[in-house]
Structure formats: structure tokens, C-alpha cells
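Hi R.,

Here's the chain you asked about this morning:
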Amino acid sequence: MTTIDYSERIPNNVGLGEDRRLKRALEAWQPSFLDWWKQMGPDGLQSNDIYLRTATSVDTRGWAHFDYVKMPDYRWGIFLAEPEAERKIAFGEHASEPAWQEVPGEYRAALRRILVIQGDTEPASVEQQRKLGQTAPSLYDLRNLLQVNVEEGRHLWAMVYLLQAYFGRDGREEAGMLLNRRSGDPDKPRILGAFNEATPDWLSFFMFTYFTDRDGKFQLSSLAESAFDPLARTCRFMLKEEAHHMFVGETGIARIIERSCQVMREHPDKDPRTLGVIDLDLIQKHINFHFSVTLDLFGAEISTNAANGFSIGLKGRFQEERIADNHRLVDDSYPVLHPDDTRVVERHVPALNALNERLRDDFIADVERGISRWNKIIGSYGHEHRLSLPHRGFNRRIGLFADVNVSPAGDIIDESVWQSMEDGWLPSEADRSYVQSLMVEPVLTPGQFAHWIAPPARGINHQPLDFEYVRFD
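And the predicted structure, written out as C-alpha cells:
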């Protein structure tokens, strides 16, 4: 079904009205979701009219409609991409068999865990970002933040649908727990560490949407290869929405760089911090932090869980069908970097066990392209400074590098050197305080932007930059 049925209490294109048991279960969960949204969603903005896009179709052409809506009235729903006729499994032990429409009994626990972890990230990011509206640099940026938030809410609905549709009572219990955990809560934290970090300012938000939402792109792309067809179709549509989130991050950082370069050109002999903009060294520190934290989300470099997930067909590789191999990996190897006493060395390990690292490599290559675009902006202003990614072993908490101190250049160093250099590589308390000092009051006049960020090249949905993206009475 390409068109989404908005006559139902829960918009969907999965024929929800034909499954009375599932419909009742989801309608029973819906009030709890709305309560969570009102408590933990964007603070102080629940009654404003926001210019948001809402999915109207899963077709690739004209799939969204833009209009004003109050966020509690947003039509969160269940949208799956169109099914592929006679789709076959593309990898693992079941390669070439028909894709599954139900979960094989022996794989239920593993698949449920995948859905819970993915589902837990969606409300977590909303919770992390709920205070940012109070310091928005423009109505354009505020609207983009809120669009990201409502779509993360819809992605939660996507995972909850799969849990409740295919896992019965266990799925209903897991769906309830997704609303009970809280980002950063010491007693009931979110599952993954990066989703318990604070997002205290807009520079952090743009970094999060550039790096961490990009992890989401690669995780969802791997799940879009799944032998379990409802999951594959769910993730294919989620990727369509996720693309905007990464756009917000990349262009947000680009606009900060643009503004800083403008001011540095006008005042070449002054410290950018005395001029109220974010210096390039500070941007580099934030890149170092968010990149390293996001790398941990891919898991350990060598993982039997990843190998098992691939072999049984639950999670493939990024763009699996474009890879020129036998898609089983039984006798293949893959290079993985290891810390070895005083240096980092490359060793080949069984490819099945290195699937996390391969996905991490795909992510890094994608991130590098954005870094190159940012450096072109810097170069266009005549500056020699260039941004870069730190070594993949830098500041890691999971995997082979978790117990090793690695410099951004990739050198293994002792603890004393790390302690002496940490504030030069990662945002210090003084750095964070400076950034937050720039973001004290929101800029809510249409067409105006905070001093520390340049306007975008164009508005949303062909609207002008001075469009009233968020209405304040």
C-alpha cells in the first residue's frame, strides 16, 4: 500500500484496521507515548504551530506534505516501504531463499534484541535535545530541530509496531520499557552510552545529527537488508526521513564554519572568541569528541554477535547486494587495526567476525566526505587551517582500543601524556562554557539569525528565509 490511511486513529499503510488485536494493543500504547512526549519532548513548545512535514505516501515521488501543526497533534504512524515482489534473502546461510514474513522461532530472541536497541535510540535523542528550543539561533533552525524530534518519535513507533505485531506479550512489555527509560538517568538509563550524553548546545546538536544520526543511517541500511521483510521495509522508509537529519547536521556545522571564517577575515588579528564566534580549533575538538563517541556505537571490532546476525540473515552489510562476493563470508578475511604494545598494527581476521568494523569503515568514508566539504569552505576564505578526523582508536570506550590511550594522530601514549593533552583534544569545561555563553537567548524574529551562525542558502520547502517557521502568539 503506497498511500497512508489517515482515517485511522493511528495512520498506517499496513492494514492495521484488519488486525483488531494489534490495533487494540497499539491504541492502548498510544496514550503512554503522548504522555511521554508531553513530559520529555521539546520543552515549552507543545502549543506552538510548527511548519512540519508529514508523510502522506511511501512512494519516492511527493511523499510528504508540509503544513502547520501543533506537535501533540502530529500524526505519528506506521509506514513501511512498498514490498518487493518475490524478494529473496541476499546473504548468510539462507541466501536465495524467500524473505521471511514471520520471525523464525529460533531467531526471535536475537531479532527482538535488535528492535529494542534500535527503538531505544529514538526517544533517547528527543530527551537529549528537549531544552535546545530555549536557545534556538533562528526560527529556521528551531523548525529543523522539531522536525528531527517528531521523526525520531515516528521511528519509535516503527519499532514498537514490529515488537507488538510479531512478539506478542514480550513485545508489548518491551514497548512499555522504551517509554520508561530516560537519557542520562542513573537508575534507568538508555541502553547505548552515546544516548546518555548531554546535548547542551546547538554546536553539539549539529554534531550529533551529523555523526550520530549517520550511525543511524548505516545501522538502518544494514537492517534494510534483513531477511525479515517487515523490518527491511520499515528501515527503508526510515532512511528517507533520516536523510534530513544528517542534512541538518552537515549544513548547521557548515554555517557555523562560514560565519567564523567571515568574522576572521574581517578581523584577522583578533581571537575569534572575543568576536562572539566559534573558532575552528573548538570545532575540531567537537569533531574529535562526537566522532569517537559515535564509533563506539558500532560495537566491538571483533564480534561473534555480528557474525551470528549476518549468518542467520538478521542484519546484512551496507548496500549488501552491491558487494562483489558470495555474501556468505565463510572463508573470507578482513583487515582490523589492533593496538600492539606501543603501536597500532593491522591484522586480518575472519570477515564474519569483523562485520562491525566493516560497517565502521563505511561510516568513516562517508563522514570524510562531509569533512572535505567543510574544508572547502575554510579554503574559500584563504585559511590554511583544515579539519580532520582523529584516529579511530582515539577516546574509545568499547572494543580493542577501550583500555588504550591513543592520540588523534594514532600514537599510543601513556596516561600522563593523555591527561596533559586531553583539554587540547576534547572540549574542556571552559570550551563548553564559552559555547553556551553564545547561546543564552533564542532568536525568534523571522529571517534573523544568531551572530555565531550564517543563514542557510535557502529555506525549507521553497519557503523564504524570513518565513514564520514557528508561530509564537
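Residues 16-471 form a domain with the Ribonucleotide Reductase, subunit A fold (CATH 1.10.620.20).

Let me know if you need anything else.
M.
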